[in-house]
Amino acid sequence: MHNPVMLSEVLKTLSPQKQETYIDATFGAGNYTRSILDKADCHVIALDRDPEAKRRAEPLEKKYKGRFSFIEGRFGDMDRLVPGHSYDGIVFDLGVSSPQIDDPARGFSFKAEGPLDMRMEKKGLSASDVVNTFAAKQIASILWEYGEERRSRAIAKAIVEKRPFQTTKELAEVVRDVVGFERKGFDPATRTFQALRLYVNEELGQLERGLEASEKLLKKGGRLVVVSFHSLEDRIVKTFLRERSGGVPHASRYRPEAPQQKPTFKVKSRKALRPTDQEIRKNPRARSAKLRWAIRLEGTS
Ligand SMILES: C[S@@+](CC[C@H](N)C(=O)[O-])C[C@H]1O[C@@H](n2cnc3c(N)ncnc32)[C@H](O)[C@@H]1O
Question: What architecture does CATH give domain 122-200?
Fold first, then answer.
């Protein structure tokens, strides 16, 4: 088992029950799915956009025959991909999985030498396309918007001067040269790599669409549980839940004068849940995790 983040909190809030059906929107290494299926005699449909996740799901389809199925696809399209629309719970564990990070060939990590790839679906625009072909201005705005990188312009300038880049390590070194080490234990390349990954996989747009899809798919009383890893993701989850729980009127660009709608969620975590110190000591990846959860009400979306 890879180290699943905040697993006990996920099980507590999702609260698997006999006969119920859940969606694991981010199968990854399958740790949440396995634990949910072991916790109660329930059903799980799992999604992942990474074609390699499908291979990891196959043994589970055998072991939990009739209780588990896997769909390769994006959670932003979840309402079209899964059958029916009356689920008891949906869980998201955002970001990259341990198998993705640990395989240098996927190009997610700056700690190991690997190609500048970062594509969860192994197709489409790669990180290499961005750093080797985009204009400095575009690169700077990606680093600023998706990495909240204050030195975005200086890094973009250095990237354009030093390119082409083949590997993750080459890129990380240039970023470190520009930014310099700021604090112990934090690699200055972190924000640049986060930004490229979010951009290449359009992760924030996926999250917005995934939350909207959950609103359609959950039945009354259904639980929505989201584990996020950085402030950009958490802000989207927090804003969505605030709007849907009646905290602010949820106008849209199509209906700017929307009347106050009936809330569709009751937020159960005004303050996000955090991993215990013990978990962080055991698994440093859990350090920045935040769990927010809510219960679906009757209101229509
Ligand atoms: C942090 S891992 C999940 C780990 C999992 N909870 C476990 O216990 O093993 C996140 C997974 O979500 C997948 N993912 C990210 N964005 C996605 C999206 N928009 N649609 C479907 N899967 C996505 C990634 O490919 C990755 O495998």
Answer: Orthogonal Bundle (1.10)
